[in-house]
Amino acid sequence: MRRYSLRDDQWERIKDLLPGREGYVGGTAVNNRLFVEAVLYRYRAGIPWRDLPARFGDWKNVHRRLRRWCESGVIERIFR
Length: 80
Fold this sequence. Notes:
- This protein is an all-alpha fold.
- 50% of the residues lie in helices and 0% in strands.
- It has four helices and no strands.
- Residues 6-79 form the Insertion element IS402-like domain.
């Protein structure tokens, strides 16, 4: 499913905008790249959250994390 994955150059442009990055004080988030790819997969495939493939983890957690990132402005920073 590479068409739903981020290229390395895309990841390099956004990784420092995300919470939980290496060296970040406070809570750290594991697998930011996998999470971003899960969100992209869901929207590009046009599927309901509950149909998100298991390799991305529990769909409820992915959805909850996306809501938090939207509310805190992280998603807006990524897509500027």
